[in-house]
Specification:
Helix content is 45%, strand content 13%. The protein is an alpha/beta fold and 300 residues long. It has one domain: TIM Barrel (Alpha-Beta Barrel). Strands 4-1-10-9-8-7-6-5 form an eight-stranded parallel beta sheet. Strands 2-3 form a two-stranded antiparallel sheet. It is globular and about 50 Å long. It starts with 8 loop residues before the first strand and ends in a 9-residue tail after the last helix.
Length: 300
C-alpha cells in the first residue's frame, strides 16, 4: 500500500503493553484487533507513545512484526523506525520494509541537535535505503530540534518522503507548511488538540494518542473534516477535548496508559524512567473518563 492517499485519516500511535517487565503480546494483539473493529484508519507501532526509547532493538522489531501480522493488511501500518543514529534508523527502516510495513515514521534525531542541513542529509540517507514511504516526525519538544518549513519543502522533493507528522506546537508553522509543500504532500497533526484546526488549513489527518482510548470518535472527527463537515467535526472535538488534554497532564504515555487501564484495556505497566501517575493526576484522568462514560477497569 504505497499510494499517498492511503495514509490520510486517523492513525493510532499505539501504546506498548508490558507484563512482568516483558512485552505483553496478547494484550498488544488484542489492542490492535480492537482498534480495527472500532474503525481506526491505520496504526503506528513503536512511536513515542509506544515507549520506543526503552525497547531493545529486538523488542522494537518484534512489536512491528506483531502489529503487521495481526493487522493482516486490513489497515495501513506506519512503523516507527527513527533514531538519533542515521545508521540505526536505516536498520530499523529496512526491517520494517522486510516485515511488510506500509510506511515508516521517522522522528528527528534527538539529543544530537543537528543543523537543518544535517536533518536533510539524515532523511535523504534513510530514503535512499528503503523503498517504503517515509513520514517525517517533527516533535521539537521531545527532540530539541525543529524541522523548519524550508527544510520540509526540500524533503518533500524526495520521492518517497510523503508527509510529516507535525507536532511542533506552532499553529503558525503548521499553516506555513500546508501553504508551502506540494498538494500531494501529507501534513498530519501529531497533536490531538490541533488536528481539527490543521485540517481547516489543509492538513490531511492525525497520528493520535487519544485514539488509543476512543478510536471511533477520533476517526469520525477526521472523516467529517475531510468531507468539509466542520460542524460535525467541531461537535466531536469539543466533546473529547478534555480527554485530549488529560492525556498530557504528565509525560506521554503515562496518562494514556493509566486511562486504558481504567477502561479495562491493558494492565498499567511502564519501564523506567517512566513511572505511574501522581494520585492527583490519576484522579483527573478517571474523572474525565467517567464524564465520557468510559471508566470501567480495575483502577477506577
Amino acid at each position: 500500500m504505497t499510494a499517498k492517499t492511503s495514509f490520510r485519516g486517523s492513525f493510532t500511535a499505539l501504546v506498548t503493553p508490558f507484563k512482568n517487565g516483558a512485552l505483553d503480546e496478547k494484550a498488544f494483539r488484542d489492542i490492535v484487533e480492537w482498534q480495527i473493529s472500532e474503525g481506526t484508519n491505520g496504526l503506528v507501532p513503536v512511536g513515542t507513545t509506544g515507549e520506543s526509547p526503552t525497547l531493545s532493538h529486538d523488542e522494537h522489531k518484534q512489536v512491528v512484526e506483531w502489529c503487521i501480522d495481526q493487522v493482516d493488511g486490513r489497515v495501513p501500518v506506519i512503523a516507527g523506525s527513527g533514531s538519533n543514529s542515521t545508521a540505526e534508523a536505516i536498520e530499523l527502516s529496512r526491517h520494517a520494509e522486510e516485515a511488510g510495513a506500509d510506511a515508516v515514521l521517522i522522528v528527528t534525531p534527538y539529543y544530537n541537535k543537528p543543523t537543518q542541513e544535517g536533518l536533510y542529509q539524515h532523511y535523504r540517507a534513510i530514503a535512499e535505503s528503503t523503498s517504503l514511504p517515509i513520514v517525517v516526525y517533527n516533535v521539537p519538544g521531545r527532540t530539541g530540534v525543529n524541522v523548519e518549513v524550508a527544510t520540509l519543502v526540500r524533503l518533500a522533493a524526495i520521492p518517497n518522503i510523503i508527509g510529516v507528522k507535525e507536532a511542533s506546537g506552532s499553529m503558525q508553522q503548521m499553516c506555513e507548511a500546508c501553504r508551502a509543500v506540494p498538494p500531494e504532500f501529507l501534513v498530519l497533526s501529531g497533536d490531538d488538540v490541533m488536528a481539527l484546526p490543521l485540517m481547516a488549513v489543509g492538513g490531511r489527518g492525525l497520528i493520535s494518542v487519544v485514539s488509543n482510548e476512543i478510536p471511533t470518535e477520533v476517526a469520525q472527527m477526521i472523516e467529517a473534516a475531510e468531507r468539509d463537515d466542520f460542524a460535525a467535526a467541531r461537535a466531536i472535538h469539543h466533546r473529547i477535548m478534555p480527554l485530549m488534554l488529560a492525556n498530557f497532564i504528565e509525560a506521554n504515555p503515562g496518562p494514556v496508559k493509566a486511562a486504558m487501564a481504567a477502561m479495562g484495556l491493558i494492565e498499567e505497566a511502564y519501564r523506567l524512567p517512566m513511572v505511574g501517575l501522581k494520585p492527583e493526576s490519576r484522579e483527573k484522568i478517571v474523572k474525565t473518563l467517567k464524564d465520557l462514560g468510559l471508566a470501567k477497569g480495575a483502577y477506577v
